[in-house]
Design brief:
This protein has about 250 residues and is of the alpha/beta class. The chain has one domain: Aldolase class I (TIM Barrel, Alpha-Beta Barrel), CATH 3.20.20.70. About 45% of the residues lie in helices and about 15% in strands. It is built from 12 helices and 8 strands. It has an 8-stranded parallel β-sheet. β1, α1 and β2 form a beta-alpha-beta unit. About 45% of the residues are buried. The structure holds 1,3-dihydroxyacetonephosphate (13P). 1,3-dihydroxyacetonephosphate binds next to β8.
Length: about 250
């Protein structure tokens, strides 16, 4: 698997049903008409919309469907959770794992995140593994070590093949939903560190093939500068993915 320029939309807990169907169909039409076929586009709607959207968007559409979360056990007494295997059965292609909102608001620890990564891969889907430091770590100058530890705890155990099938999203927590995006230099510094860390663990070739996305107040205005950084292969987009025009413009920023 080589690196692929990617625009992934994380809708988070937004959109009423009719809005979600409309947004999805607008995005799909625009992607078909305007986005270069070398660019991968993904939308990750709330779980309840996955099945209807999966039916709207054919499996061979250039627009792929992802989930925002899943639980690693195949079935059982886990009230309120959705099994990774269920998403695979529905034809989901990608699953976001370890988003900082899951880690902070729902207490997801490294060990659970690692199990989730494994379950997504075992079920034939692609994890979008999220990492990124809080503001106090950035201010203390320890952000590179912090992110390397998250990579080490979450994906270092994977086989070469599984690692190359995993997308990594660097999302500094201080940039998420704040309008304060990382500068291209700040993003590039961490992306390069992630690639170096993987290179040391797994070798240069594996590291060169990994797709690393930036997330945190990424929009159509700042995407061209961010995406032109050597180690930035696209974005995981929150707020700006809720408007078809801005999301598609981001996908056209490579
Ligand atoms: P924003 O683009 O809204 O800052 O969100 C980023 C994010 O968390 C994507 O997963």
């Amino acid at each position: 698997m080589a690196r692929i320029n990617t625009a992934a939309g994380n809708w988070k807990m937004n959109q009423q049903p009719e809005e979600a169907y409309k947004l999805c169909s607008e995005i799909e039409n625009m992607v078909k008409d305007e986005v270069d076929s070398s660019v991968r586009t993904i939308i990750c709607p709330p779980l309840v919309y996955i099945n209807p959207l999966r039916r709207m968007v054919s499996k061979d559409s250039p627009l792929k469907i992802g989930a925002q979360n899943s639980y690693p056990e195949p079935k059982g007494a886990y009230t309120g959770e959705v099994a990774t295997a269920m998403l695979a059965e529905m034809g989901v292609d990608y699953v976001i794992v370890g988003h900082s909102e899951r880690r902070m608001l729902f207490g997801e620890v490294d060990d659970l995140v690692k199990k989730k990564v494994d379950a997504v891969l075992e079920n034939g889907m692609t994890p979008i593994f999220c990492c990124g430091e809080p503001l106090e770590i950035r201010d203390s100058g320890k952000h590179l070590e912090y992110v390397s530890d998250q990579i080490s705890n979450g994906v270092s155990h994977l086989s070469d093949n599984d690692l190359q099938n995993t997308l990594i999203a660097y999302e500094p927590i201080w940039a998420i939903g704040t309008g304060r995006t990382a500068s291209p230099e700040q993003a590039q510094e961490v992306h390069k560190e992630i690639r170096n860390f993987i290179s040391n663990e797994k070798g240069k070739e594996i590291a060169a093939n990994i797709t690393i996305l930036y997330g945190g107040s990424c929009n159509a205005e700042n995407a061209p500068d961010l995406f032109s950084c050597e180690d930035v292969d696209g974005g995981l987009i929150g707020g700006a993915s809720l408007k078809a025009r801005s999301f598609v413009d981001i996908a056209k920023s490579f």
